[in-house]
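Changelog note: in this version the structure field was regenerated for every chain. One regenerated record is shown below for reference.
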Amino acid sequence: MSKRRLLSTGSPFEKTAGYSRAVVDGEWCFVSGTTGYDYANMTMPESVEEQTRNCLSTIERTLNDAGFSLPDVVRARYHVTDRAYVSKVFPILGQAFGDIRPAATMTICELNEPEMKIEIEVTALKRDRVN
């Protein structure tokens, strides 16, 4: 039986809302929806591009802390608050995931706070690496 491990960024939101930044279960890592907060300063950048970069940075750091990396990502879900943001975030997502090409979905929706413009969730599966 695999051991479940919970990871945290130390964000106060995790305790308040009762979730983990990520859950590792066996060879799987499930990273919660991640918004564009700069967790070092607890600030939210204005632009969707900078928020996207922050999301990806937090996700990559979380995956690394869990013993995974971006190439392990097999599923990505993107949520943006405005259709106009799609063309702004696609190039940034392409830089991060262009060679990895996980199964992905993007939706246009409202997020928890008005300053949030994007949220990204990923699932990773640890696989043997071939060099």
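Spot check on this record: The mean pLDDT is 93. The beta strands are 4-7, 22-25, 28-35, 73-80, 103-108, 118-125.
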